[in-house]
Amino acid sequence: MNPPLAWQAGVVEMAFAEMYPILNGRRRLRDIERAVDELHGRAAMMQTGLLNRLNQSWQSGPDCAPGCDHCCYVRVHTTVVEAVRIACYLLEAKLPADLSVISEQIDSFCEIIDQVSGAAYFETRLPCPMLVERLCSVHPVRPIPCQTYMSWNVKACYDHFISNMPSQIPKLDAMGQAIGPLAAGLSRAVVESNAGPAWVSLPHAVRAALFPGALKEWQSGHDLFRSCEAPLSPG
Ligand code: SF4
Known about the structure:
The protein has 235 residues and is mainly alpha-helical.
């Protein structure tokens, strides 16, 4: 991996400075939600700027559209705070019936996925458990790794998907380079405040956070997310 450019290092610092005091303090959920939303807002602005530049030189825009979910079969590794944001969103925004559907999907996903390793993951053809009727149920707060997926060639996405190689789905590298440093800054804030591991499996971390009373214990310093640790940073 190349060392970060100066502006990328600045973005890492900015995300770290936003989140670290919150995690090192009382870990108030409202503050975490506000900070994650603020950083996601910056990610959206960076995406728009990048897309505007690309659309000036390319003939068309991305092929991505609601209901196209090939990239939602990829293992999602994210930061503890983005998983907490998703859990809060599910608890606040969803009707109890929806929440129980998603919770059941998360449970059965984790049960199956915990039995497989390596490339066998893709052979399960299990979608992310946050996917409901081919739409992301947490789209407004989906984590930065998901936001980096953007394709100009939906056929290539489909071909990789049916070949059991969703990890090869074309990603826009420039998007990862633009907004990935935000996730890196959040990850550093989590580690340096002892709030959890650098990267976690999204479904496992959301499941841990949804367990009744678990977030309160985490706010008091309990190591809630240790078992959700993901070995790799998002690609
Ligand atoms: S969180 Fe949403 S966008 Fe990300 S993989 Fe899951 S369903 Fe897809």
